[in-house]
Design brief:
single chain, mainly alpha, 293 residues
């Protein structure tokens, strides 16, 4: 039996007896022991498998550039990150822009705005659309990442990735969504078009906010593993799978307003299954990255 077939046999066995992911966890631990972390292999692993929760923050910080690939530098770099966090926080307190009553996610937003040179004159200024995106992602990240310093840096770099690396791709996702929904269920797409709902779907919630505020964090982090590691196209397949999952409900609605309202507030109990099927759909249409440890 070859090494690959042995690995596949073990994976199937582990899954059958309830230990799904044991082999993957071992594979990731091997990658994380390298003196210099291999960014490409970590990206490939994250594209293929969900990250174990105990390693997620570390892998995200490395992939987002918060930590360097070299292990020996991690402690010192995080010390600098903490000092920068404290300095920016202190500056906001000194100018009385924040207080003890300011919600933590808003503190993160103002810190980000101050560091970007875009702090408004007063906290009472109306929020920009980009601020709403930041707050939604920060609120979800707060549920995933316990440490406030880590939470701020991951949120900030995640949003920066959306605004830079994915800047040209995100506006194209609605068209891709329409294309793949047509391949999976053309009748469902025809119904959306007949109701004039295609242009009114919650694309901002789905694609700009990466489903923050739409799906529970336990499901969301599996999607964000893919976004952080290089694919925002996964968002398209989550949207497609939501439509396929709730097809009967959507087909029974006869107006764009009702369809959009429903999709903005989908039942949460199906979210894990939706994400699993969406990842399968993504692999089906886009292939599976090859990972070699």
């Amino acid at each position: 039996m070859t090494e690959d077939s042995q690995r596949n046999f073990r994976s199937v066995y582990y899954e059958k007896v309830g230990f799904r992911g044991v082999e993957e966890k071992k594979s990731l631990e091997i990658l994380l022991k390298d003196d210099r972390l291999d960014i490409e292999k970590l990206c490939t692993f994250s594209q293929r498998f969900p990250l174990p929760s105990m390693y997620r923050a570390l892998v995200w910080k490395v992939l987002l550039g918060i930590l360097p690939p070299h292990h020996e530098s991690h402690a010192q770099v995080m010390m600098y990150r903490k000092e920068q966090y404290s300095d920016v926080l202190h500056a906001l307190e000194v100018i009385r822009f924040i207080s003890d009553a300011t919600p933590q996610v808003e503190v993160y937003l103002y810190m980000h705005r101050l560091e970007s040179g875009k702090l408004p004159r007063s906290p009472s200024f109306p929020l920009e659309p980009e601020d709403e995106v930041f707050l939604a992602i920060a609120k979800a990240m707060e549920e995933m990442v316990e440490d406030s310093v880590d939470c701020y840096w991951i949120t900030r770099c995640f949003v920066n990735q959306l605004n830079s690396k994915y800047r040209d791709t995100l506006p194209q996702l609605p068209k891709a969504f329409e294309q793949y929904l047509n391949l999976e269920d053309s009748r469902l797409l025809s119904h959306l078009k007949a109701c004039c709902a295609v242009s009114t779907l919650p694309y901002e919630l789905w694609f700009k906010k990466c489903f923050a505020g739409c799906l529970p964090e336990s499901s969301l982090q599996r999607i964000w593993d893919k976004v952080v590691s290089g694919s925002c196209k996964i968002l398209v397949f989550v949207a497609v799978e939501i439509l396929l999952t709730f097809k009967i409900k959507v087909m029974a609605l006869n107006s764009a307003e009702k369809i959009t309202k429903f999709l903005e507030n989908i039942p949460q109990d199906s979210s894990d299954a939706i994400v699993s099927k969406a990842i399968d759909l993504w692999h089906k249409h886009c292939g599976t990255p090859v990972h070699s440890s």
